Amino acid sequence: MAIETIPLTLPPSADASKFVDFGREVKGLNPGNFTPEEFKELEKLLYKHDALLFRDVDLSPEQQYALTKAFDPTSENYGHGNNKTGGTKKSILHPDLKTIPHVPQVQLIGNGTVYNHEGLAEAKLKHPHHKTFHKTHISDADEEKGATRFYRWHIDAALYDLNPPKVTTLYGLNVPGGPHQVCRYDDGTGDELEVPLGTTAFVSGRTMFELLPPELKSLAVRSKVKYAPHPYIWMSPSHAMPTGLGIETEGLELPLNELPAWEESKVMVLPILWKNPVTSELHFQVHPCAISELYVDPLPEGANKEGALYPDGTHITDLGAVRGLVYKMQRPAIDPKFVYPHDWREKDLVIFHNRGVLHTVVGAFTPDQVRAFHQCNLAASDRPIGPSAEDVKKWA
Ligand SMILES: [Fe+2]
Predict the structure, then answer these.
(1) Does domain 1-396 have CATH number 2.30.110.10?
(2) How confident is the model over 25-46, as pLDDT tens digits?
């Protein structure tokens, strides 16, 4: 059977011109059992379209692990290291994950209590709620009327010691129905986005770069971000912005000497732009909550200095300044018209290019709305590739 691809159904809020290449539904391929030739085609499709959807899939945790590993055959451990349920209690990710005992690379995530699930007698799950993370909150009255927020825009990555996973697979086993909610930005713009209950929202890192004016493209192509050591523990006392796109600068991060033991050699310094292995395009890939410093290279020889930011290069260590610059570059791409909020159905499998998109949990469930998903990603065998010398010449 030939592999067939169908464009995803976009919400009325979406600017279709920015989604020409983004996302495809795939038919004619069993993601639990495929030939090497089929996989080659699948891999190309993923890097070209950044998110692939399969409907009505039956997929065991073993099959999901095998599928995820196929994109990076020498990777073995979950993106944050295996068995996250046991240790690192202080990390803000701890309450969101339950490890599947017989396939520790696959995590159970969702909401409500799940019984006798893949060797877990009773798993209490909690859909992350913005009240536990954002500085300001939606009032209970507004929440009852269906107002909600983006929880946290991110890349799936430990961002310390372990390389960012290439892909994430998300498989919906139990998807509670309910009315749409309205995701509010609450940043003074009045922006809001109607979303299906419990959507996963995606934006393209390629679009994020494309939208930038020339001086910020030049800055992005010359910049590297330094992430905090143990970033999810470091940020644990702090609060996020109302858009979920980074942290408010209140000085609440844990001091570096209060973190678990860490070494400089494991701290991640990564380019802002990551090169797509199939299209060679550049994706703006920064996890805004975890950033701590910015390194900017000088303009290459012969480049026009007029209007350029930091033409001689710089190293910015002021946390507020780093966050401000990155926010300015990322915020345009989460405009409602550039967001794809996936409308989950039971037995949906989504594979996304974790080095090419940002995503976030959205919405709020009541405790009786039981949601169960399997998620898998693997700490990669290599680092993302940054811009080439030609890219710098072209955009700087
Ligand atoms: Fe995620």
Answers:
(1) no
(2) 999 999 999 999 999 999 999 9
